[in-house]
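Thread: quick sanity check before group meeting

JM: Hey all, I'm pulling together slides for Thursday and realized we never actually wrote out the predicted structure for the chain we discussed last week. Dropping the sequence here so it's in one place. If anyone has concerns about the input, flag it before I start.
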Amino acid sequence: MRRKRVAVATVIFGLSCLAGQPALLGQGDANLLAEANARIERYRKGVERFYTILFSHPAVEANSWWDLSDQGAWQGAPAGLLRKDMSPKPAYDALLRLINDKWWTRAEVKAGRGGEARLRRFYGDYKVVVKQGGREVAGTFSFDKSTSAPIEVQLR
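JM (edit): ok, ran it. Output follows.
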């Protein structure tokens, strides 16, 4: 019988969620600190996978990255998203793509007769622009965990 290895961080994360507590996470080590040139692709994939898991779990409310750059990083570890010369690492580019492309709601929808439109979206603040016959009006709305009723947007 083959045993599956489970990281301590995964167990702690799971117990926190089972207890009904929101998960507020730091970068931790998550086996990501040991970056070397030969492992840079593995590091990128690990960062991408780790953040995807965090983003997809409903108990996660926040996350932070301790060292943005390798310059002055804790114990000299190459744990930053940027190198000492401030050039981006592949992990930085991967996170940028996730945040600004994959996890960003961009949509064009057509409203029904009553002016209603349905949209699957991520939590956040939104700007709606309605164009009809050369005229353009806009409005804003927010969508978060507490939103359960349809959202009415005032257009001006």
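AS: nice. Confidence is low (pLDDT under 50) at residues 29-35. Residues 8 and 17 are 14 Å apart (CA to CA).
JM: adding both to the slides.
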